[in-house]
């Protein structure tokens, strides 16, 4: 019998703690049933909530696509290396940034945009959305959007990853009404502990063991393991037939009408 493993994000800037999914404050920590069968993880009651408000956690078409996403709250010196790999391998990514990151690393944010990557909204001050008002959420998102526009050519942020991974039906609804698309993830592992890095093979094996068609992968650029493993991961996954796509590809494809076959 498969062991039920739930992932719950309680993040301070970009620091997640994985534990059983529970109600935290007025919200839920994002969680799913982890598996190593290279299959889409089961998210239970969250499925209907995400569908109602146009949110994503994976590409459910069954195609061998992968979507790389990074959460950036502060810098440890590895983001340039990661961007170098993405550029050399011609692979897109989405970087969910906070106000602190934009203020402290404007050149890196500009480089991300200049090299064709997407900046996602991780809020300005990284509060728990489930305990603040809709107006406060709006301010957090708009302030971050303005900050990114000041240092780069991206003047609109449409993808949102909630701080600490905490959400509920109300925060999904409010964000949807404000024009944002929630993006969670279907593959993650403990990669943020900068003083407990385990070598590039750890990151490589964690992703290869959990990878599945349509995976939205959550990584942190503060990890030296990730920086050292990324090129090897991309090369191996491409050998296995995976294609790396942007979140724009996922959302556009999902909004296209179903093909019509045959003749009337």
TrEMBL record:
Keywords in alphabetical order: Signal
Residues making up the signal peptide according to the UniProt record: 1-25
GO cellular component, as recorded: membrane
Annotated NodB homology domain residues: 64-245
GO biological process per UniProt: carbohydrate metabolic process
One of the record's GO molecular function terms: hydrolase activity, acting on carbon-nitrogen (but not peptide) bonds
Database matches in Gene3D superfamilies: Glycoside hydrolase/deacetylase
Top-level taxon: Bacteria
Protein name as annotated: Polysaccharide deacetylase
Organism: Oceanobacillus picturae
Gene: pdaA_4
């Amino acid at each position: 019998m498969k062991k039920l493993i739930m992932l719950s994000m309680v993040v301070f800037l970009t620091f997640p703690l994985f534990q059983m999914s529970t109600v935290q404050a007025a919200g839920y920590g994002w969680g799913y049933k982890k598996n190593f069968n290279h299959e889409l993880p089961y998210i239970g009651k969250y499925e209907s909530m995400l569908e109602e408000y146009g949110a994503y956690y994976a590409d459910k078409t069954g195609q061998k696509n992968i979507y790389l996403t990074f959460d950036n709250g502060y810098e440890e010196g590895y983001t340039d290396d990661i961007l170098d790999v993405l550029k050399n391998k011609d692979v897109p990514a989405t970087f969910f940034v906070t106000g602190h990151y934009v203020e402290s690393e404007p050149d890196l944010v500009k480089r991300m945009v200049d090299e064709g990557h997407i900046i996602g909204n991780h809020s300005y001050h990284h509060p728990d959305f489930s305990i603040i008002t809709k107006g406060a959420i709006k301010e957090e998102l708009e302030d971050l959007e303005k900050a990114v526009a000041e240092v780069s050519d991206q003047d609109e942020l449409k993808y949102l990853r909630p701080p600490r991974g905490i959400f509920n039906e109300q925060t999904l609804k409010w964000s949807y009404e404000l024009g944002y698309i929630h993006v969670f993830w279907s593959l993650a592992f403990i990669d943020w502990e900068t003083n407990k890095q385990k070598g590039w093979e750890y990151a490589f094996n964690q992703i290869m063991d959990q990878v599945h068609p349509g995976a939205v992968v959550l990584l942190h650029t503060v990890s030296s393991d990730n920086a050292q493993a990324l090129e090897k991961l991309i090369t191996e996954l491409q050998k296995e037939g995976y294609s790396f796509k942007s979140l724009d590809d996922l959302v556009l494809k999902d909004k296209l009408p179903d093909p019509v076959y045959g003749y009337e």
